[in-house]
Amino acid sequence: MSPAQAVKIAAKTFRANQILQMSLAIFVVINITAGVVYFFEHHNNSEMFTNYGDALWWSVVTVATVGYGDIVPRTDMGRIFATLTILSGVVLISLFTATISSVFVARKIKESQGLQDIDFTQHTLICGWNPQVEDVLRIFDRQSDRQMQIVLVNEAAPERIEDVINAYQNIEIKFVRGDFSREAVLNRANAKNAVNALVVPDAATVGADEKTLLSVLTMKSINPKLKVCAHILNRENRPHLKRANADEVIVSDQHTAFFLANNVLAPGAAQVASEMLDFDRGSDIHRVPVPEHFVGRTFGELFLDFKQKKNWTVLGLVNEEETVNLSDILSHDTSAIDAFIERKFREAGINVSEKSGTRINVNPPFEYVLQAKDIAVILGVTS
User: Fold this and answer.
1) Per CATH, which fold does 3-112 belong to?
2) What CATH code would you report for 124-254?
3) DSSP 8-class letter at 145
4) Maximum Cα–Cα distance for the chain, whole Å?
5) What is the pTM of this model?
6) Has residue 114 got a pLDDT over 80?
7) What is the residue extent of each domain of the chain?
8) Tens digit of each residue's pLDDT (9 = 90 or more) over 151-171
9) Half-sphere exposure (CA, 13 Å, Cβ side) for 143?
10) How far is CA 80 from the centre of its chain?
């Protein structure tokens, strides 16, 4: 950057920053009045104005309208400039205070309207708005073992979001208003530094799944490491979301058939599952790391230990090691064999590029040997 460019940038910043302008004005007044008063006082009032530092101290105290009275001018010209300094100080300090207040008020208004840039890091985005969002926030508020930072990104009325923000004490919520499929809006939500994102379909929105797909593509382009869970309405769109690298895809009503059928085939089974999933009834599903001393031992030992000592029922295990899929194995060249294998898998409805970082092991056998990165999913109260 050339010196001329640096000067232009500095001048532009100065013109746009009212606080900087007022600070400079106060600095100039303090130094001018200190110099003038010292010029008139240091000969006739040398016991008080022994050096320029004394005059500068007097000027600061006077401009700030504090007026300690430890140093005072005695000459006529000194008192005239002291009067001007007092009047200037009242005006400048008032303007300075008003400027700072207006900056903070404007910032608060922008925050309430969802127009302020977010400074969170390691936070969670919730993009879209429907009644389930409040249920998600209630679970976060009740079950999170730390204060989560949540950014809501949607086009709901700011008044509605304000009520939601004030309703939860254990999570810190901020709001960004706008279309969450747009890069500029996601940048305001600081998606680049987020860890997780939940994308839900807006209520009464036509083409909700298409918007969800576009938003996932945009998020992954901004932050490839962002873990995105997308909620879609049509199960036929699931392969598209997986190709867009959505980490998890939730389909509306995907378990309805299970509950309906099992109310006939296995009465009570559906009710047990419903009880386990209903957070309002106090049944909690959590994940806890497998203790180090159980690594290399069997799942049966862990199951019995958790049940006997903590009354936890281990439902299964998850392992978040990076998995290898078919696209990692294929050579990606133009060989007929690779093309044939890939085509056959696609004809079978298998997405060769789909990759999941989480391996699920539901109800493993007792003889299963626990690994270092296994995490237990338990049913029970952890606190």
Assistant:
1) Helix Hairpins (1.10.287)
2) 3.40.50.720
3) S
4) 107
5) 0.64
6) no
7) 3-112, 124-254, 280-379
8) 999 988 888 888 888 888 889
9) 17
10) 56
